[in-house]
Amino acid sequence: xxxxxxxxxxxxxxxxxxxxxxxxxxxxxxxxxxxxxxxxxxxxxxxxxxxxxxxxxxxxxxxxxxxxxxxxxxxxxxxxxxxxxxxxxxxxxxxxxxxxxxxxxxxxxxxxxxxxxxxxxxxxxxxxxxxxxxxxxxxxxxxxxxxxxxxxxxxxxxxxxxxxxxxxxxxxxxxxxxxxxxxxxxxxxxxxxxxxxxxxxxxxxxxxxxxxxxxxxxxxxxxxxxxxxxxxxxxxxxxxxxxxxxxxxxxxxxxxxxxxxxxxxxxxxxxxxxxxxxx
Length: 279
Prior knowledge:
Elements: H1 3-8, H2 13-16, H3 19-26, H4 30-45, E1 51-55, H5 61-68, E2 74-79, H6 82-94, E3 102-106, E4 117-122, H7 133-145, E5 147-159, E6 167-172, E7 178-188, E8 193-202, E9 207-217, H8 221-230, E10 235-245, E11 253-261, E12 271-278
Parallel strand pairs: 1-2, 1-4, 2-3, 4-5
Antiparallel strand pairs: 5-12, 6-7, 7-8, 8-9, 10-11, 10-12
């Protein structure tokens, strides 16, 4: 192919895509997370939460939405991916006009314990990269140091009978020419180490392969609860999502996006919970 022909070659949709934009649209739900944390803090502490530290913040999408939800709110975002932080600064903080109320810190989340905040959160199972008990307990201890006297730590966790399987799940993004693909690449039942990947398939047949990859431990709820208690938290609450029958003729259940505190449930093929630990 001539040089001019190579230059005129049309880029595929995958080649033109921004993986951070796709991640925010397919994986994150910051408005729902802000609502959940706000409601639970008010319910448990009797006052409005104003300060947030988002550990493993990535593009700080959640931190920016936290500040958009209330003009009094401030946030800290901590991550050690410089490129992703700078993308978030430009496309989230500055674009949404909250750059003056969000502080981004390029560092290990275990090193940032000041200033103290009302809520620390670690979502999208990010803390699961700590695969040893001592490592994860230490992270929980450091998160506790960064909380005010009535602060809370909020985590999410996934599980279910199919989470130990090698599978691919596809979800078409609404009003977008792309399908989000979650792949559980491998799972070791001896140490619960698993590798996962996110791909994006486009309507023109192109694929953004391994847009994001993960290697972590599939922790269980009782393990997380015990480590939080060992780290000094006074109370650990589990919030389970309500499920209902799907609208089609299948027997599958669908999540409602509503969470309730409970101590006993029936296992499912797949579930996601919020864990709230009180100082």
